Model the fold of this input.
Amino acid sequence: MRKFLIFCVILYFGFFNIFLKADGISISNPHSEKVWYKGLVTPPITKVIKWYLRSTLSRKVKIDLLRPGNEVPVLVLEDSFYCSKLSREHKCTVYLIPDSVPEDQYRIRITTINNNLNNKLVGYSEVFSIKRFRSTTERMKKNKSLTFKKSSYLKVSVDWLTNYSGKYLDIKWTCFGKGQVKLQLHNDKKVFIRNIIVNPHSINNRSNILKWKIPLNTKTGYYRVRIATLDEKNENFSNRFKIIRSPMASKKKMFR
Done:
């Protein structure tokens, strides 16, 4: 008897969801954090519209691109899209947004297609952005200030076992933008020891290299190179390396 009652409750709520649930359209994608890119993008970036439809009138819908607060379509994405199943998620892929569409905020409108104008269902997406896709070169040109990105690195090319004071050290690094930087020698705990260069060093995009002669009086220990913009807003440290004080430093001190 108990199993029969549970079965009746499940059956009741199942019929309730099918027949009594209100008609409507709910758009889940694009959402407010979504960005669509217009024009030809290589490699292609898929733009997908996702929605749920509950309608007893029509399974055909029209999909438009609108500006917020304006019901006049900027672009008709689909004239007649057939939703095969009700109360299921449907998808529609947009392959190209023309270059003529301005960079701005937009939203998607989905409307059912039927003969009765008074019984049309309408659903709206959240407001999202459409932008022009910019290549890495364009983004670098746009960003005139000198920055050290996550993808950039500072690498000191040394062999710590044979690296003596008085020898040359190759300092290599990459960055985005053009400008001037200062280079400093720090100990392993990132405490300042000395300036590697007296005057600011002008650099270019991406790969840079500087040959630095390690002073003879540099003590034996582990060190790091610090690179920073002149305003101190961007910085980076090298991996640690070892400097061994040259025996020549002691000999010069003896003959003074």
Summary: The CA atoms of residues 136 and 142 lie 10 Å apart. The chain has a mean pLDDT of 76.
